[in-house]
Structure prediction request, 83 residues.
Amino acid sequence: MCDNVPLACRLFGHRYRFAADGATMRWACERCEAAGGEKTYGSAAEAMRYARAFDREDREDLGRRAPLVAGLGLRLLRLLRRR
Prediction:
């Protein structure tokens, strides 16, 4: 393993962020800036759509998409807050 890779990337893996540049979607690690790759789509709109979809973090939807049993408390709390 390379010496310049941060400990977080070694333990948890790379944290890729996705961006579109025209019809090309590129991704790179947010922590160590290691290039992940790129893919070219048929249009810039399609590349942007995929980049936005892949760049989402699950933490943004905590409680809404929680597992059924483990997230039951969160689901009930959200349901009570809406009323």
Remarks:
- The radius of gyration is 18 Å.
- The mean pLDDT is 82.
- The first helix runs from residue 7 to 12.
- The helical segments are 7-12, 44-54, 72-82.
